[in-house]
Design brief:
This protein is α+β, with helices and mostly antiparallel strands and 124 residues long. 39% of the residues lie in helices and 14% in strands. A hairpin with a 7-residue loop joins β1 and β2.
Length: 124
């Protein structure tokens, strides 16, 4: 079974796996998507069309930090904007790196709250 790192859902909440715990977003996900898109002189509609979407809904949610793009869409954005993933989600990467290096503060600074623990066996 493959677990997707992040995906949009109907309620507009983002769920993702971080050290085997399921989280829901309580604060916006820090990113530079809007800034990088504007530097590329593109509209949300142009980006949506390049990614094969019929509307700008997903692009808007990603830029506002409400949800993460699927990993494939993240790489498509990187190719489109000619940047690396950490240039789009650098602040989040720094938070995660700090928390991994200092396990006692794990989860303390992430913009998330534990929702439910996953079973220790199976699926991974």
């Amino acid at each position: 079974m493959i677990h997707v790192a992040a995906r949009d859902n109907v309620a507009g909440l983002c769920h993702f796996l971080y050290p085997f715990t399921l989280f829901t977003m309580t604060q916006p996900i820090p990113n530079t998507l809007r800034l990088v898109r504007k530097q590329a002189k593109m509209t949300q509609l142009e980006v949506a069309r390049k990614l094969g979407f019929g509307s700008t809904d997903r692009i808007c949610r990603w830029e506002k930090g409400r949800t993460f793009p699927h990993i494939v869409n993240l790489f498509k954005l990187c190719a489109l904007y000619q940047v690396l993933p950490h240039q789009l989600y650098g602040d989040l990467l720094l938070i995660i790196e700090r928390d991994v290096r200092h396990p006692s503060s794990l989860y303390s600074s992430l913009p998330v709250q534990p929702a439910a623990s996953l079973p220790e066996s199976g699926g991974f």
